[in-house]
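Final report, closing paragraph on structural work. Over the funding period we assembled a curated collection of sequence-structure pairs, and we close with a single example.
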Amino acid sequence: MNTDEFYLASKESNVSFTGIGGHKETAKKHGIWAGLCTDKDGKDFHFCSFGTYVPTAGASLLSVGQLVHNGNSVQHEGQPDSGLHGMWLKNRAGDRQFIPFEWDSESNLWWVKFRKSPLAFSLRVQVTNQQREHGASP
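Its predicted structure, as stored:
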């Protein structure tokens, strides 16, 4: 998932950093984004977190620090195919759901697949409308 459509509220940024293989990258925005992912039992999970949008990257960067700060956790155990790598996220009822990471042997990175969420679109419209009411630009 690397599209600014997923961002509910964001700020422009021009932060440069060294990426994989020493390539220079520039983040164009950061903020709150939302999407739909699938838990280990195949159930849909609406997810909202803090991320960084890098247009030249294949995916937005997820903030593990924000995940943990919000009461979630990240788990890495065993070999990549063990099924024990992922995120434990709280749902609305306060229960925790396991969202597995997918291992990409080409890049040696863990990924989480996100899809567009109708709920995320609705939240984005609400955030944009609130920003307009208060004189801020979306």
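DSSP finds two helices and nine strands in the chain. The first helix runs from residue 64 to 69. We thank the funder for supporting this effort.
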